[in-house]
Amino acid sequence: MPWGNWTIVYEFVLVSFSALWPELQALLFLLFLTIYLVTLTGNVLIILVTTADSALQSPMYFFLRNLSFLEIGFNLVIVPKLLGTLIMHDTAISFLDCAAQMCFSFFCGAAECCLLATMAYDRYVAICNPLRNTVIMGCRACAQLAAASWFSGIPVATVQTTWIFSFPFCGSHMVNHFFCDIPPVIALVCSDTSLFELESLTATVLFILFPFLLILGSYVRILSTIFMMPSAEGKQKAFSTCSSHLLAVSLFYSTAILMYFRPRSSTSPESKKLLSLSYTVVTPMLNPIIYSLRNDEVKAARRRVVHKILDPEKL
To answer: Contact, 299 vs 53, CB < 8 A?
Structure first.
């Protein structure tokens, strides 16, 4: 394509949900604002409770704190701009802001995939090898695993974002999404992107499918160990420590796999937006609820922290 047909893009326009009636957009704004506030409050409470209570200093709660920090980051990157497009119709996003949003959202998503796999490994060690749990999952090992999870996505996120924004853009600058994700942005590129798409598929397999298979393998071993336990009480306790994580993994990976492993032609843009809402907006809200309601230790710790705040003289 000749240079005369290429355009220099200074900003994009997020289509978001602008096709809906204004009244419906206002309702969506209230819904997403409520979800946003619940997400921030729930994850902050998880961080405070697991930090303040001495009974929640095991590796499982250390990784849960890290997960809550990631969920907060994911929301801060995506939801404020989404709310702006709904209530103020602030759909314009600069070239650099779009690149930053894409980079940080990819980083948070990749880190969450790795962290969920790390949490599955922690449950595997605790249930299948309990006598060596404190040796294998010591403070240093936990810190190294958490750091590896956090920083694993930085190289790929940086390379992918730099690569995609080095392409020439032509024609429309309308991003048919509510944030700058790779598929809707790459659709605006007017040059050959086959090599980039191959690299993107490789990164998707590496950060979504590979951790998912590790989680699946860990839980196959965990379930086989649980079923061999002699006491019903032991089985119930083991199941209770895994059920919250299993539910969180199911919510996150089911939508992420549907989003990034389905052929483009088989999914409409509106369906992609709904799938993206599931893992970027809804799942971060549900995770603290899941871990609070289904975990007796967290519920007990929350009560202790509340009593400590309301009546410190009794402690």
So the answer is: no
Give dist(CA 25, CA 263) in Å, integer.
29
CB 200 within 8 A of CB 37: no
Residue 127 and residue 225 in contact, taking contact as beta carbons nearer than 8 Å = yes
Q: What type of residue is 262?
A: R
Interior CA angle at 112 toward 108 and 114, to 5°?
A: 120
- For 105-174, give the DSSP string: HHHHHHHHHHHHHHHHHHHHHHHHSGGGHHHHT-HHHHHHHHHHHHHTTHHHHHHHHHHHTTS-B-S--E
What gap in Å lies between CA 126 and CA 60, rounded to an integer?
Answer: 9
Tokens (6 digits) for 238: 């083991």
Burial 205-226 (b: 16+ CB within 10 A, else e): ebbbbebbebbeebbeebeebb
pLDDT for 280-314, tens place per residue? 898 899 888 888 766 667 777 777 776 676 665 55
Element (H, E) at 93: strand 92-94
What's the sign of the alpha-carbon dihedral 270, 276, 281, 287?
positive
Residue pair 94/8 in contact (Cβ under 8 Å)? The answer is no
Quick one: 306 exposed, middle or buried, by C-beta within 10 A (0-12, 13-18, 19+)? Answer: exposed
Note the pLDDT tens digit of each residue in 105-141: 999 999 999 999 999 999 999 999 888 888 899 999 9
Residue 269 and residue 187: Cα distance in Å, rounded? Answer: 12
